[in-house]
Amino acid sequence: MASVVELISTMLKREGVPYIFGIPGGGGTIDLLDATEKDGIRFVLNTHETAAAMMGCVVGELTGTPGVVLTAISPGITNVANGVALAYLDRAPLLVLSDNYPWGAIQVVLRQTLNTRQVFQGITKWTATLSAEWAHETLQRAFRTMLEDRPGPVQLDLPDDVAQKPVADKPLPLVSKQVMARLYAQEPAGFGRVVGRIREAQTPVIIAGMGIRWDRAYPELKALAERIGAPVFCTPKAKGALPENHPYSAGVFIGGKLELDILGKADLIIGVGLDPADMLAKPWKYTQPIIAIDRVTNYNEIYHAEMELVGNVAEILTMLNEALPAEHKWDETVAPAYRKKVYDALALPTPGLAPFRVSDITRELTSEDLILTTDVGASKLLLSQIWRPYRPNSVLMSNPLGTMGFAVPAAIAAKLVFPDRQVVSLCGDGGFIMRMSELQTATQLGVAPVIVVLNDRALSQIRIKQRKKGLAVVGTEFRNPDYVKIAEAFGGRGTSVGTETEYADALKEALQSNCFTLIEARIDPSQYAAQFDAIREL
Fold first, then answer.
1. Which of 12, 207, 449, 533 could cysteine-pair with 411, CB 3.0–4.6 Å?
2. Could you tell me the pTM of the whole model?
3. Which domains does the chain have, with CATH numbers?
């Protein structure tokens, strides 16, 4: 008869979970590690629980299989909370398994006792406590909840006295296959009206959001764009869903100034997985009718959809591609001309090393399937517009939550999942310093991402806002450490560059290294303010 932890391990293995991240406590989580070790599931010891959750989120985004994180009792759950919030708003399936006291002790013990449900209530899709009697049902509901509709995190307490209890011998269905195979039935007359509405449109525009990722509807999106001849914008988390060397790719949509050039001429917007969490926190300003295609209904009503198709996004797009005639509603030169206009507006020269040139050089010297990770702040706002991904799901960022410190753990996780692909992190100095201890994790795993720290010695995006308001510049500038020494201390290679030639040479060498490389790029941030004004109203 299997124990609770053996049942958990069996479930993780059957669902295809490749890694567990985190920092174990002294309770049931170490019993679980013993079981998962026997089942061949690799454990990754992190230096902070938030970084562990970030890496779990990335595994979920890249593979579609939930990430898994272990934490200790109360300090572990408070530490992991930011990473769980990332999974919640950035829509990543994440299972958090936490130590806890036996149920009786929880009622009276004060030391290291927190109400777990209250801690996670606003940042998870579900939270529960495992028991031997209901272990099967709890795990099945946890996986289904993580993967259904918009994916997200689930947290389960594993009490000390439950871990080794025997469980009943009952079937354990493969939940992920049930979720991915599902297609909501479409009412035929309603589907026909959608087809007719798209056929009537003279200048439709497609906006692909992060909801497209979970059904991996990239070929179907490309086929729809080519079928009707429509430009495609992608929100930041969906960047590259249509590769940006495709003639119908219009780049990134955030709801700012630049995209009005094309959207102002549209007579219909087709939202494909368009999630408002990945857009600016401002009212929807477009008046065109909208057709919404997503796993979930448009219950947020940030924008109002005239018609909706709800279900598996890939299947719905396939149905549309089969029903729609081949047309060329837009000239193929429109989107490339728009992308060039955006680039020209942002490629502002500076006396020193310009951030946009770091991006350009990185793109020129790396493979088409490179995975790029970015952090939050000035660099991400610029990179979301000027970076050119050539593969879907090859840009990793935190946009809906917008949490700093994401880029380094994300790069390590990406290299762990895809060891044969190049992985480069373009990271602000503030975000890097928050998570630089995870370089230890990179060394321990033997992975070799390239970490480029865009060093401007400040929290530049906030400093720009201070100056725009005529306020004192306080709390946004800092003294940086010696990045080369940091890299070497953690077992990697480090170098510092200040020119385009130096950066290109350093990057070429880093891409050949068998350990991680940290490149400090001493950038000139003097054009950030002008670039941001071109993108959105700060």
1. 449
2. 0.94
3. 4-181 (3.40.50.970), 188-336 (3.40.50.1220), 347-535 (3.40.50.970)
